[in-house]
Amino acid sequence: MPQKEMAWPRQPSDRQWEKPEGDDPRTLYQMLMVSQERFGNEPCIGYIPGPGMQRIHLTYNEFGDLSTAVGKGLRDIGVEKGDRVAIIIDNSVEWAALSYGANAIGAAYTAMYTHQHGKDWAYILGDSTPKVVAVANTEVLDKLCDALPADGWPASGVILLGDDPANKLPPEGVEVRSWTDFVKAGRAGEDLAEIADDPSALSTLIYTSGTTGNPKGVMLSNWNTLSNVLCVQGVFELYPGDKNAAFLPWAHSFGSTFDLHWMIRMGVHINLISDLTKIADECIEIKPAALLAVPRVWNKFYDRVNSQFTSATGLKKVFVGKAQKAAERRIANAGVQCDAVAPSGFFDKLWDKLVWAKVRARFGGNIRFCMSGAAALSPDVASFVQKVGFNCYEGYGLTETSPLVSANGWMGKGKSRLNTVGMPANGVRVEIDKSAWDDPDRPDEGEVIVYGPNVMQGYWNLPEATAEVMTEDGGFRTGDLGKMVDGYLSITGRVKSQFKLENGKYVSPAPLEENLKLSSLVEQAVLDGKDMKNTFLIVHPSLDALREAATSAGISVPSDNAAMCADDGVKSWLLTNLTENNMTAPKWKGYEVARNIILDPEEWTVDNDMLTPSMKVKLRNLLAKHDDAIKSL
Questions:
Q1: For residue 541, cis peptide bond before it (omega within 30 degrees of 0)
Q2: Which tens digits make up the pLDDT trace of 244-298?
Q3: pTM for the whole thing?
Q4: Which end of the chain, N or C, is less packed with Cβ atoms under 10 Å?
Q5: Distance separating alpha carbons of residues 377 and 416, to the nearest angstrom
Q6: CATH class of 28-40+59-225+252-259
């Protein structure tokens, strides 16, 4: 077979990163046009239009033409260079076409989640003042009609997706156009007189989660995002025609930069996951070469496979044990971390075929590498994914850094390190401000400050908030604690989420929280204990699993979930289980290990205001909910 070639070579490490050079794309739309020209009739985006329906595929030509038509359509309804286009749509062809179409005419898109509260949409629309808003369906439009004041509607109205006519209508004079009519008019419109060409122009406003107040609009330019994309082109094994399985929300910077724009740049066939509860099932059909996900996905994968390994009996149990040992020995001999090591020798290949190949088949059997981002990935999980036979790379970044700051994997095979997030990306410089941190037990740690072409232009309409996070020489204060060792960055917590116990010891809750979530008994967990003698846990347990495990251990478990979570015997048993399995020394110091536990029978969600739209816990709200229980500890 002929050797595959990547669409683009790796960038030289000594290039300048302040601005585009040579044949670099200058805007996201220009990048799409280059990919359309190169990949033409190759598949670009695949999606399932409705339950029980077959996947439909658009070629690069079809998607590029659609994006251009959307740009013309936006122009013809009054959207101009410098305007904003709001999107309240889940990942879809329409979402992608709106983002590239807006970019074609020099407008910026601002995307929201369809599961957000109406009040959040109203705030973001009021703050970003878009010229038009595109909505996913009549349900979203109904919620928007209830939430928006009469004078809060965009001047060019609403674009409504779907076949259903509007149910509730905005105030008189605010036009509602169907997507079909809008695109038809755009296709018939005059060609664009000019294509936007400013790398420094605003390309997107991404609103941060707002765990402690109103969300802030992060201003990212074309070059902010493109510098991220160009940095990883030709680095990870992605070839034209490869498939990905896209389910990270494109309203989030990790999803849009890497699961959309990077894939378009590399000629990849993007395949949208239609049902997030059936990611593995759809991966079997898609057979992706790359899978980008958040730690929660990898944690569930780790838990599910390990629970099946643990329950194996007879010959199957023998095979699992042999496969585990063979993989561990092979990886240890190779002396690499994060990178998969192919089996060698008769028995190694046999155990791989009997055990690990079947695990890989659950994701289509074709994955070359996995990337994890948006939160800390447990080293135990990363090591397990490596044993399965996937390259597993963790990256680090923030919305304000477009998002990539550093990652394992991009430096080359054999150079990744567990317990780190790799080396800073090309063009990015990281400094550790030790003056922001005063724990004498951890003198080498401090606040991570990022410099580079990926750093945002600022927060929209918030000069004071921008000044708070930017240094005088252009660095961005991340709010994350970290340290640099041999050029590798390790993230050790959040500056603000660290808390000090009564004895003066500092506790960094995030790593322990992630480790707790590896338990099959835990769905969600928070560690706290500020100014207290000991730490405590608030846990939303996996209710059925907890009931079964505690009953099997001889605990008398009430039949009602709320009563179970309030039962002292159940709480004591679960705390002991977690202490013995998930909060073990020497990884966790004695003062970090929780002495008390509060069980919450209610899942933490966006709807009950315990989570942000990007699934971060609203700690203040959670602590307020359990205030009485905390005071009684």
A1: no
A2: 999 999 999 999 999 999 999 999 999 999 988 888 889 999 999 999 998 888 8
A3: 0.89
A4: N
A5: 14
A6: alpha beta
Q: Do domains 28-40+59-225+252-259 and 294-494 have the same CATH topology?
A: yes
Cα 84 to Cα 33, 160, 232, 351, distances in angstroms = 21, 17, 28, 55
DSSP states of 419-453 as a string?
TS--EEPTT-EEEEEGGG---TT-TT-EEEEEEST
Which residues, at least 6 apart from 614, have a Cβ–Cβ distance to it below 8 Å?
A: 209, 249, 252, 374
Kindly list the distances between the CA atom of residue 430 and the CA atoms of 161, 222, 390, 450, 490, in Å, as whole numbers in the listed order. Answer: 43, 22, 28, 5, 11
Query: What is the 3-state secondary structure of 64-112?
Result: HHHHHHHHHHHHHCCCCCCCEEEEECCCCHHHHHHHHHHHHCCCEEEEE
- Between CA 532 and CA 317 the distance in angstroms is 45
Sorted by where each begins, the domain ranges of the chain are 28-40+59-225+252-259, 294-494, 499-631
Tell me the C-alpha distance between 599 and 616, whole Å. Answer: 19
Q: Check if the beta carbon of residue 175 is closer than 8 Å to that of residue 199.
A: no
For residue 374, give the 3-state DSSP assignment. Answer: coil
The CATH number of 294-494 is 3.40.50.12780
Token pair, residue 548, equals: 């079964």
Q: Are 71 and 45 in contact (CB under 8 A)?
A: no
Where does 517-592 show beta strands of DSSP type E? 522-528, 536-541
Non-local (6+) Cβ contacts of 426 within 8 A are 11, 13, 15, 17, 231
Question: Comparing C-alpha atoms, which of 216, 186, 163 is closest to residue 100?
Answer: 186
pLDDT digits (tens, 9 = 90+) for 557-578: 998 999 999 999 999 999 999 9
Cα–Cα distance between 316 and 303 in angstroms, integer?
A: 18
191 DSSP 8-state letter: P
Does residue 339 contact residue 414 with C-beta atoms inside 8 Å? yes
How would CATH label the architecture of 499-631?
A: 2-Layer Sandwich (3.30)
